[in-house]
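FW: tagging you since you asked about this chain on Friday. Here's the raw sequence from the shared folder, copied in full. Didn't touch anything.
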Amino acid sequence: MNNIAIIGAGPSGATAAIIASENAANQITLFDKSSPLQTLLCTGGGRCNLSYAEFDSRELAKFYPRGEKFLLSVFSQFSVEDTVEFFKNLGIETYIQADNRIFPESNKASDIRDALLKALNKPNIKTEKISISDVEYSNNKFHLTEQNGKTMEFDSLVISTGGRGEGHKLAKKLSHTITPLKPALCSLVIKETALKELSGITLKNIKADVYFGGKKQFTQSGDFLFTHFGVSGPLVYKISSYAAFLDYSEITPLTIKLNLVNKAEDEFDKILTSEFLNNGKKSLLNVISEYIPKKLAKEILGTINEDCEKKVSEVNKVSRKKIVSAICCFELNAIKTHQGGEVVTAGGVDLNELNPKTLESKIIKNLFFCGEILNIDGLTGGFNLQNCWSSGFVAGNSLKNRV
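HL: got it, structure written out here
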């Protein structure tokens, strides 16, 4: 018999328990300070965006700013297709949205949770609403200590406490390295406080070039949202993820240059030239508002000292070029992440200390890690849950086949 402890009853820990329990010789205790899978209920806006419909594992791994190479082995064992099949076997039918995100047909995260809880209801799985405060490893056994001081002994241990749980302290105690932790997939606070007047304005599928220290770092695209504190939306979440370990601040901000119309400057200049010629009596604000939201157009024209009510027939070439540049290269400066707004954490257990084929520690035998505790984080769109399902399967399957 293999007596297994799993600390953390989130998506990855629950999956590991379900898979490991397929071997009746495994006796599993699933520990969590809260109810199992509670965190699932708010995912995907309550609908549970459980994965993303990219069925080529190599392409899928490219959506992870950290962990791409490591995940190739993980996804080869449990892919997006396997995830869909896994949930189908649990009674959950899924569908693919137009943007490739995968959801349960019911659009209820609670249905995903209920199906997993039902799968956890086995004779060889026990769930305990207990917080583990300490762990020791001696004589090939793991000794777990509850907050009340009670100690329990196990043959194998899985730590799956998520990106912000107590698991990192336990991992350190077991001689593992924790790479620095930073917020990712979060909103950003910008230096341009006057732009809070634009709060609520959304721009669809625009492009951003991101600079730091005067050097271009990367380019990303997506939907963009102005807020009362700064900027948010899928594009900003991508930026925050790829910039997670850049030390930007008010003194050295992260410069974001937005192309508000997704057109090269010379192309947009030709379009405006034609518009100005054909609609000479229209005001500058009305013409520009055909391409970007009116409130934003007014802000931009004010910034470059252009009269919104000026007739476009009166706009000279120099002014037109200035307007084109302001729209195709609208600059913002991010000074910090929005506190408390992070969705996932970048950083975690050092992947070099794990076997990617089993997720077992290279330092301590029979010690496994899975889920967001790892130094793996994906973009928004179901990628982080896919990491949980896949890594949970790999850890659980390793234990299933060990006895």
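FW: The chain is about 30% helix and 25% strand.
HL: agreed, and The first helix runs from residue 11 to 20.
FW: great, closing this out.
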